[in-house]
Specification:
Layout: E1 3-8, H1 12-22, E2 28-34, H2 37-47, E3 51-54, H3 63-73, E4 79-83, H4 88-97, E5 101-104, H5 109-129
Length: 130
């Protein structure tokens, strides 16, 4: 059984790199890649991923705006803010916007993986008991 991840980042290089890294875990599949907030919202509604991996700084809607809308329309999907700009103030703002966690792009790759795994834990438990 695999878990789907929607990757949202305006950089095609980051999206491609994340896909390659994430899909090294045989239980994870990148179900889609969005380059902006509007595309992310549409894809999340259509695909219903298990996790949304969301950049903060994007043209049009920023990550906070996207997170607020995702929590409004898909409240059960965990949102992980993945950004270059992690500060305590931004982390507080991300959580207030509806993100479940924030990871800096400069942190070790394992931190990202561990955080995704933690966000998937309720889904893992519910799938095992179903």
């Amino acid at each position: 059984m695999s878990y789907s991840i929607l990757v949202v980042d305006d950089s095609s290089l980051i999206r491609r790199s994340l896909r390659l890294c994430l899909e090294q875990n045989p239980e994870w599949k990148v179900c889609g890649e969005a380059a902006d907030g509007l595309e992310a919202i549409e894809m999340a509604q259509r695909m219903i991923p298990d996790v949304v991996l969301l950049d903060l700084s994007m043209p049009g809607m920023n990550g906070f705006e996207v997170a607020r809308e995702l929590k409004r329309i898909t409240p059960l999907i965990p949102v992980l803010m993945f950004t270059s700009f992690k500060t305590p103030r931004l982390e507080t703002e991300a959580l207030a916007a509806g993100c479940n966690a924030m990871v800096s792009k400069s942190e070790h790759q394992q931190t990202l993986f561990d955080t995704i795994q933690r966000l998937l834990m309720p889904k893992v438990c519910s799938r095992r008991t179903a």
